[in-house]
Amino acid sequence: MPDVNQSQAILELSNLQKHFGALRVLDGINLTVPKGSILGMIGPNGAGKTTLFNVIAGVLPVNGGAIRFQGKDITKVSVWNRSRQGIGRTYQIPKPFSNMSVFENVLAAALHGGGLAMGDASFHAEEVLEQVNLAHRSETQAGELSLLDLKRLELAKALGSAPRLLLLDEIAGGLTDAECDTLLQIISDVSSRGTTIVWIEHVLRALRRAADSIVVLYGGKLIANGSPDAVLADKAVKDVYLGAGE
Ligand SMILES: Nc1ncnc2c1ncn2[C@@H]1O[C@H](COP(=O)(O)OP(=O)(O)OP(=O)(O)O)[C@@H](O)[C@H]1O
After folding, report:
1. How many CB atoms are closer than 10 A to CB 225?
2. Structural domains of the chain, with CATH
3. What is the per-residue pLDDT for 246?
4. Is 19 helix (H, G, I), strand (E, B) or coil?
5. What is the reported pLDDT for 205?
6. Is any atom of ligand 1 closer than 6 Å to the C-beta of 124?
7. What pLDDT was estimated at residue 241?
8. pLDDT along the chain (246 residues), means of 10
9. Which residues pair with 67 in a beta bridge?
10. Atom of ligand 1 at shortest range from CA of 51
11. How far apart are CA 51 and CA 40, in angstroms?
12. Where in the numbering of this chain does the ABC transporter domain appear (predicted)?
């Protein structure tokens, strides 16, 4: 990753620590995410990737270290406030309100996550559904969607709060190659509109195509950080991760 001075950084993690009892899941994470970039994150199962997202989003408190977002220390800021400040996320297992329509799900995100008033939230929800190509299913109950459309909805819900930083947690999992390409197109469009993306993903072909750089989490630390080609060719990375098979 190129050197980034503070004005170009949207997110800065300094010596982050997160422990579950004796388990040091995050053990001194230092990371600077440049504004406008797509940063891929990989690591073996259980490495702590989702925990890192939970810490950045404010769902879990840290045991040490600091998180700066858009130049401000947000280490002790509530999850609700972080969302209002511009941190959005998707979940590994999408859990929309199944009995609500697609539109209502995104509207709820815009109202609660984004803090928009009803009129603005409604307008924004329509825009976001256009952006992820789900507008034609606005009135469909979320529980009736195909996997790809569920992923589109998960993305739309995250975009509902108009994030400046979007955390994607394994959004390409379970899709066919063609479906993955469709999703990549949408994510690339989100990025080109100025949203910074940190993307945890096991589908490496997706990161290879989309990411500006990739970091590898292992043993509580980031053991690699560089261009997709360099990181995925790195011997230490292959040993701890790719050994499991791409
Ligand atoms: N709330 C919690 N309490 C105790 N241990 C937890 C908690 N959340 C996660 N862990 C543990 O922390 C470790 C990291 O889990 P995490 O889900 O962050 O890994 P991951 O890298 O996202 O894995 P995967 O690729 O399988 O999604 C695991 O050993 C997990 O069991």
Report:
1. 16
2. 6-86+163-244 (3.40.50.300), 96-160 (no CATH)
3. 45
4. strand
5. 93
6. no
7. 79
8. 64 98 96 98 94 97 98 96 95 90 95 85 95 97 96 96 96 95 96 97 95 96 96 91 58
9. 13
10. 18
11. 15
12. 11-244
| Cβ contacts of 83 within 8 Å, gap of 6 or more | 57, 113, 114, 161, 163
Closest CA to 71 of 158, 161, 4, 159: 4
Q: How many angstroms separate the alpha carbon of residue 29 from the centre of ligand 1?
A: 16
- Taking CA atoms only, the protein residue closest to ligand 1 atom 24 is 45
Point out which residues pair with 196 in neighbouring strands: 165
- Residue 20: CB within 6 Å of ligand 1? yes
Give the number of the atom of ligand 1 that is nearest the alpha carbon of residue 202.
25
Contacts of residue 55, defined as CB under 8 A and 6 or more positions apart, other chains included, come to: 16, 18, 26, 61, 62, 67
Return the residue whose CA atom lies nearest to atom 16 of ligand 1. 48
- Spell 33-71 as b/e; 16+ CB within 10 A means b: bbbbbbbbbbbbeebbbbbbbbbbbbebebeebebbbbe
Please check whether residue 62 is in contact with residue 18, taking contact to mean a CB–CB distance below 8 angstroms. Answer: yes
Could you give the CA distance from residue 214 to residue 38 in angstroms, rounded to a whole number? 9
Asked if 167 and 79 count as a contact pair (C-beta separation under 8 A), the reply is no
- pTM equals 0.93
Please state, in angstroms and rounded to a whole number, the distance separating the CA atoms of residues 150 and 129: 12
Q: How far apart (Å, rounded) are the C-alpha atoms in residues 192 and 173?
A: 23
